[in-house]
Amino acid sequence: MKAPTRLLGLFAAPLLLAALNVHAETIRVAIGTQDATINCATGGLLIRELHLLDKYLPHTGKYANVTYDVQWQNFTSGAPITNEMIAGKLDFGVMADFPGALNGAAFQKAGKHSEFITVLSGSIDGSGNGIVVPLDSPLNSIADLKGKTISVPFASTAHGMLLRAIKAQGWNPDTDVNIITQAPEIAGSALKSGKIDAHADFVPYAELFPYRGYARKIYDGAQSRTPTFHGSLVDVDFAQKYPEIVVAYLRAAIEANRLIAENPEQYSLLIEKVTGIEAPVDYLYHGPLGVQTRDLTWKPEYRQAVATAIDTLKLLKKTDVDLDPKTFVNDTYIRAAFKASGLDYDAALKNYAPQPLVANDAKTGKPIGDVHDVAQVWFENEARVRTYTEPGEAFTAIGAAGSSVKVRAVYVRDHDSGLKLFAPHAWYVKDAHGSLTAFLLKSNADAFAQRTSGTVADFAAVSGTASQALALH
């Protein structure tokens, strides 16, 4: 009788394991990203490429025997992400305030619900959106656009910026300008061929097109003083069923945010490798004092951006749904993720500072205290960006390095707003001592020069041999 007993014992464990496996659950976690919208990187691209979600997905309690089927899908805009979420093919989506509001409205119209669960990157002033013109255009400001043809991706956050900017001029958007819809990839060709007078767009195109050498920025969204952001949404049905997974996703976003803050050059190069968008443009956003602030907290200004988006979309007759921004934004999960990561959400909520610049002057070696007019140089053969106290020092360093040493990018700051700019596309005021002050707009440079008895010049005039050495447009 002992032999059959031993045989039963041999078969018992595999049978028990097989029984458990029959009841094991496979949970799909499907995330829609916008890789080319580079300020979304911490909610998509970096999490995927660095396998950060795997670190935080729960494996205890009700998740003890779970198998995860993590799916990533990349899109060029928010609208198709919304379509896939409504169809039940995506659980999370990453997009801006305007398409995010459309997402919430579309869910509600379908008898479902989605929620904005975190901000990823944004600007309480509106930086990130912008208006560009062809490189050789005589237009220098938005005031020059009356009667002109301006393209923009309709129902995008840039569309909202454009309408507000036109309203601020006292113009009628239906009669004083000709607004047409155009996707970024089409607009690039239209700018090159001069088929449009101007193009308004979102991250990163108002910086990317000038960097590639066929456009010039004449208006930055910060001039509108209207908050804008990109963030993450979740299907409420999924979130209520698997709240721990939502927190896991947000913990991965928090880690991605920390990593790119610690080494923006390294991860800007990774973003370039994945998207083809040049690392200097990525660094312009994600490096210290960047165009936007990576911020995972629901500041009042970002909540207001959601409300503004809903109102504007109704004005554009893009939706007739009454979406309540108070319930559409849910900070429960991001607060839980902060707590699980050992971080103070309320302290972060009060912090409005951009990614800080902590650096020594590359010329003197001394710590830089006043960052108001700093300049930075990213040499192609160096892993880290150099920092100088003012633009003239940076240009001198480039000239001294010689034409054989390629430069990825040179950055300066707009003296009035603090906006980070590519040096070749700025205007400069030279004072009696030879020091340089940078500006986005020529009109602002002219006004500053008049107050300080300085002279206004473009990059070629003030940079000397540096302009010849630059390996950029």
From TrEMBL:
InterPro entries for the chain: Solute-binding_3/MltF_N (IPR001638)
Signal peptide: 1-24
Keyword Signal: yes
Keywords: Signal, Transport
Pfam family, one: NMT1_2
Matching SUPFAM superfamilies: NosL/MerB-like (SSF160387), Periplasmic binding protein-like II (SSF53850)
Domain Solute-binding protein family 3/N-terminal: 26-278
Family in the record: Belongs to the bacterial solute-binding protein SsuA/TauA family.
Function, as annotated: Part of a binding-protein-dependent transport system for aliphatic sulfonates. Putative binding protein.
Protein name: Putative aliphatic sulfonates-binding protein
